[in-house]
Specification:
single chain, alpha+beta, 2 helices, elongated
Length: 86
């Protein structure tokens, strides 16, 4: 009986360890890279928008156009892709 209890404890600890590993935040999720695109959500239906075009605006800036795949709402954002060093 004692062996069965220790085996049950070991299995429970392994399940907890697996759940903990799955719940941990990966480094790229916690600290996003500057080159990652910040994906906006649609103001009309709260759906993640798709990046459909990138156009140059001025030195160091782009004009990015996002479209909602659900309701076709369009959002245009000016993005500084060369932030000044602090």
């Amino acid at each position: 009986m004692r062996g069965a209890t220790e085996r049950d404890k070991l299995q429970a600890n392994q399940q907890i360890e697996v759940a903990y590993r799955e719940a941990c935040v990966r480094s790229y999720q916690a600290f996003p890279q500057l080159r990652m695109i910040n994906q906006p959500y649609c103001a009309a239906c709260d759906t993640p928008m798709w990046l459909i075009s990138i156009e140059p605006e001025r030195a160091g800036h782009d004009r990015r156009t996002f479209e909602c795949p659900r309701c076709q709402e369009v959002t245009v954002k000016a993005v500084n892709y060369r932030p000044e060093a602090a």
